[in-house]
Records
---
Amino acid sequence: MDELSYANGAGDTGATLTDLWQRRTNLSDMEMSYVYALIRRALRGYYPSELRALSEDKEELIAQFIFLRVLRLGNDHTKVPEPSNSAPSSTFAICAYFRRYLIDCLRSASHRRNVSMEADEISAELDVHTHPLSDPVESVLAEYCLNEQITRQAARTFVNSLEEADQIILAASLGHSCDVKGGLKGIAEHHRLPSYHYHARKLGVTLKKSASPEDFAHTKIGRWMKNSLGIDIIADNRSVILIVLNLLALEVGA
């Protein structure tokens, strides 16, 4: 996924949103304006379901998100910079961060007090003005600012980035080789892949029975889902994780 970067003249050449995010409590006026415009553009076509239960309109919530979570203007500016791996570098990640903010709003007392009484009314009113996707797969992916085409392209890029051994193991586990006699062991022996069980666990296609979502999050596939698609590896995201794995399998077998 391409990084979100400056346009020429809006800062140091080659500087990215990751760099701005790291320095977000100490930006120039020009940089702050650039971040504001970039975030609004990234969220323009994103309509997560949490918006339905909040009384503020989307533009107001985006402004709050930028003020409180991105620029952190309401926080102590003396905090040390965050590690680079916490900074979003794609539109998907920005959408995921915004959705987390909306979820936090729903959990807060100020937003909860009227949700139980008004949620059905708000949902019904929005349904009149929106056209939900008929495809359940696309509907789930849309919650994360994704669609099948984007996800399969990202999966293709991920597969191509893997070493040959990992591609063979992935194909043997999810793709066109998964029905080959002998399974993963037979494929590994045929290609003379040593320690294939270790590599399969590092990749994320096999896990221990006691494995948790956090364990999967530390695999190559888990990190790809988190960093490239903006999907947190948690139980609540089980549906979208399974959909992405199925689309990944299609690309492995393409």
Note: Residues 1-15, 76-81, 114-133 have pLDDT under 50 and may be disordered.
---
Amino acid sequence: MADSDAVYPKVKLNSVNRLRNRGKYDFATIHGLVNKSPVVHVSFASDPSEPFPTILPMIGQMGSFQDPSAGLDSPLDCYLHGYVSSRIMRLSKEAVARGEDGLPVCVTATKVDGYVLALAPFHHSYNYRSAVLHGYAQPVEDDDERVWAMELVTNSVVPERWENSRTPPTKTEMTSTTILRVKIHVGSAKLRSGGPHDDRFDLKDESVRGKYWAGVVPLWEVMGEPIASGDNSVAQVPGYLRDYVQKQNDENKEIALNAARE
């Protein structure tokens, strides 16, 4: 795939308007943010008579059932995991039954890498990475794709967890779980890194610079030592889990520190 093909088209719906230089439209950046976020937020219109949109925290992961080896820089769908009778699942099924592309949804993911403290409150900010996807949610009906998506989502929580837990799913588990496939229409990302951007007159004022601390407080997610459940009978924390916790903690710290220095 050519680099020019590995981006979402820039249209009115997904264009970053304020601080446009922070906008990104490439697949790899956007898909990577979704896949690194433990929770995505999914918004949709729940009722034509209701003026307020609905927004739900959900577990989501980018992937391609047709091409499971596809990288983040490839066209991917967003798979969402939920309970069979939930409102978003019902509305998605109804939309498909009407012959529509699916339920229009917006999926967002955000990572905060630091608090940016400037000389003046006006210039305080965050170092962050955020992604927004617009698309159409459809229930996955094919059993093979559903199981594949369940594995995808499970391994997004902890890699190798699917094969290190009791599988395959039981009939009851399959019946009570619905997987939504969001066909992406457009997407965009917005990122900030670096220190504060203070006004020139404050930077020239030694009394201000000498009185107020300015800089970045790096911020990252840290996973603690795994704690066994009361029903656990495995003596030691598995190596795949211990390795993942350490690797992810190191990676999160490095990202936050690098963002503060840029």
Note: The chain has a mean pLDDT of 95.
---
Amino acid sequence: MPVSTLREAIQAETTIAPTSQHLYHNGRLIQDDTKTMEQLQIADGEMLALHVRDMQGSTGVPDQGRRGPPRRRPGGQDPELIRLQILGDPNLRAEATRQQPQLAAALDDPQRFAQLFNDSYDREQREREERQRQIARLNEDPFDVEAQAKIEEMIRQERVMENLQNAMEHNPEVFGRVHMLYVDVEVNGHRVKALVDSGAQATIMSPSCAEACGIMRLVDKRFAGVARGVGTANIIGRVHSAQIKVGSMFLPCSFTVMEGKQVELLLGLDMLKRYQASIDLAKDKLIIQGEEVPFLGEAEIPKESEEALEEEPRLPGPAGTTIGQRSGVVSGPQGTAAATPQQNPPQQAPQQQAAAQSFPEEHINQLMALGFPREAAINALQATGGNVEFAAGLLFGA
């Protein structure tokens, strides 16, 4: 069936003229009416989106339909066209659900979607204008060194947020959570999930793991000391040789028994280099002496590393998101806080109260008067060391 026949059928059902019918397939506008559905690769059961425009001269259509499409943003895109593109592309819809859940929830309501889209644009425009006004006020005295320093910091914060926004839009994969590389091994007959870390100089074992493996009695305490790196940790001693099973191979290995590590066993560069092991990320396997040992899946790795990520400090990001300070993982506006509403408030309340007491109430009220919630104002003051102007610039940039 050609597209022209489909348009006539739509006109018969809805009284919408073919010239006002804009048909979309997978977000692409269908323009050639002479082609058939088969030529356009439109199969049975697939969805076509109909966008109606230029209805002022049509009769039989309600007044609401004759108002035309939602207003188009100056220099921007048509909200309805964006909505249809998201509806026609599952990947775009999943991305919208992750980054803009409120907007994604309104995809089936054109008027609501257009309203949220335009409100978001207006809000960004107001924030941009407010920043410009603030810079203009500071520029009134170009010889004021302090004012120029504030302007420089505001511009820097704006560039940082712009860089963050571009990264989230064009390279969202850099904010994904990358789980560590673990393999199943056996030490002295005891099964252990070992972290493979080519950046560690030595193979490290925790005291509890050494006890469970029955090799704590072999620790040579003459090798005790303090390991220094990102922090410090106490070295209890060294096990010079014990049998470790990797895959189907039994290999002799030495272990440095160290306190303060979250992992039970860490295979370091000493062992990997000794047995000429290679980490093949394409195969997702550890290759050691020709034998391929698969890395554990995300669901199989120890939970201690996941809990450490959940407890890491977080920074505010665009559109209400939060970003892990160490891992760079982005969480949605209602990420972990929405998932555990009964647990987080008791933990966060004392911290917020202590932070609020460390800043003058007048400074907090000044930021709240700009339209920001109290919690965001306190977080911004913490991030800027109590400087109200810098905190305002950070909030407007977020």
Note: The first strand starts at residue 21 and ends at 25.
